[in-house]
Amino acid sequence: MESMLIDEPRWATSILRVIVLGLAISCSVLAADTARAQDLDHEGEAEHLHRNEFLFIFAGTYEAAKAHNIFTLGVEYERMITERIGVVGTLEYLPSEDAWVVVFPVAVGIVGGLKVFGGPGMEILSRRDSAAEHGTQDSSSGGGAENLFLVRIGAAYIFDLGGRLSLVPNVSIDLVSEEHGWTHAVVYGVSFAIGF
């Protein structure tokens, strides 16, 4: 019980870092877009398709091996290559596990606001969590992490809120390569997107 109280400030600090980073990027994006809009001629040169999108992720992760849900925060950047295909970079933080997930999927628009995505990634576990998960005592004095390869597949639906804003509910499955084989986690949640 005491160790959880000691870890809580670290969770709060990490969550705050993700939120501050997301807000800083959003402010930069909005400022750059405002400057670009002022430079455009008002006779229709503006691009109708938002080629870039930045998302704030609020989600839950259900880990089948541990049979419990984990609150998840994150950010995502998507660059549209064509009207239907985009490349994505996702960074998520799972505070209760002190783990990071980095994924680089390709997204494909199917019909309307429906899109599917899939790609490789990595789950980065702190050494403390890795030792606890494998039932071993961590005797090393230095920090460190265990990196687990994963593949994410999923689907999302984009609800346009007008202008550059949209709401994106999504669900995905992470297939994670662990020491004793593959396990899976289901990530579900909602993202708030800003297009530019």
Short summary:
It is built from two helices and ten strands; from the N terminus they run H-E-E-E-E-E-E-H-E-E-E-E. The chain has helices at residues 2-39, 127-134; strands at residues 52-63, 68-80, 85-94, 99-103, 106-111, 114-126, 145-157, 159-162, 165-178, 181-195. Residues 1-8, 38-47 and 137-142 have low confidence and may be disordered.
Protein described:
With 196 residues, this protein is of the alpha+beta class. It has one domain (2-195): Porin (Beta Barrel), CATH 2.40.160. Helices cover 23% and strands 54% of the residues. Strands 1, 2, 3, 4, 5, 6, 7, 8, 9 and 10 form a ten-stranded antiparallel β-sheet that branches. The longest helix has 38 residues, at 2-39. The termini are far apart. The model is unreliable at 1-8, 38-47 and 137-142 (pLDDT under 50).
State the main characteristics:
alpha+beta; ten-stranded antiparallel β-sheet; globular; 10 strands; 2 helices; 196 residues; Porin; disordered N terminus
Query: Would you tell me the overall average pLDDT?
Result: 79
Radius of gyration computed on alpha carbons: 19 Å
Overall shape: it is globular
Task: Note the quaternary state here.
Answer: single chain
- Please tell me the CATH architecture by its name: Beta Barrel
Topology as a string of helices (H) and strands (E): HEEEEEEHEEEE
